[in-house]
Amino acid sequence: MSKIKRVVVMAVGSGGDVAPMASVAAKLADRGFETTLLAPTRYKHFTENTGVAFQSIGADEIFSEVFDGKDIWHPLEGPTAAWRYYGAAMRSGFQVLRQGWSATDTILVSSSFSVAARLAEELDGYRNTTVHLSPSIIFSAHQPSKWPTFSIPSTWPLFLKRFMIKAAERLVTDPMIDAHVNSYRLELGLQSEKNFFSQWLHSPRRIVYAFPEWFAASAEDWPANGIFADFPSTINRATSIPGKVDSFLRDGNGPVVVITAGTAVTARPIWVDRMVNFSVNRGARVVVIEPASHPGRDDNFVYRIPFIPFEALLSRVQLIIHHAGIGTIAEAMRAELPQLLVPMAHDQVDNAARLQRIGLGCKIDPTTNLAATEAAWYWAFNPNTKKALKEAKQKLMADGDGATRIVEIILADLSNE
Prior knowledge:
Order of helices and strands: EHEEHHEHEHHEEHEHEEHEHEHEHHH
Radius of gyration: 21 Å
Structural class: alpha/beta
């Protein structure tokens, strides 16, 4: 461990994917490591007022094309669009790493799809820790994840679930990832790989699950080298609220509801407007968090803002309706908030199902099922729901900060080598 002086934390994806990794980077810098975050340039601000250096992982133009486009949030087209960027960031990130660091004094910490780290681990001998922010990344026949378009029923016989998992990987995910990863592997003189989701994406050295075991317990076919570390907290930022927002929160009667489809969504989903009107019609005031380019209702009952730190806002509202992003789920649980969930793509469907299973959220479809949405609204303000949310917050507080735990795992692994 004494030879290791530097850490490179690699993160790709939206802000919700990068922010937790930036928190890990900050904790490592606090321990005295020369720490750099390699991520999309858009998220450079996550390292402000920390001891973390920032460098672009590259492929920023493709990042903008993909994450500012519509396909990324489509249940069918989303993964293919995402891998267009992940593949480009793999190539640029691998070259950035080779130009600036050496495995002799540097270790890697990487998010699920930062596959440049997996190549560096394999080719250049880096010690890498893969951090999975949500459980849907694990292909499990014993506990199949929920997918946006089709999910394997948990009640099916194990042999049939295994067959379906293997078929999904062979016919869907492997061809999608192969087009990017294996072409580059061949250029680097490496053999082609397969079974990307079930095997190759996970570091053979160490995997960390950045969520609590009570949120998603492991199954016997999960990677054997995985350790739970709980939800990472975001980096402490200014917790003040703009004056206009503060006035909106203080003035008026009734509950305040936060509605967001995620700050990376460039085209407002139809459900946002429907839930704004639904909430106002039930006596609530609504804070909508979305890009400033989205015009919409803005009056005494609705306030729109492109960004506000959840740690400043959520303690002052009574309900959040959102896309089931894993980071938003964690922040809402810390604030003891009931959550109505409208998942759209990627891991969101699985996150929503898991939160609903433990009684801390309610999945809704406001575009087709008004009766179920009504029932979910009353669930959100039920005293029994409040009790369950309080107990969940106590669990989170007892578990501690996942970013700190991830760093402890990384340092323990180094000490044991």
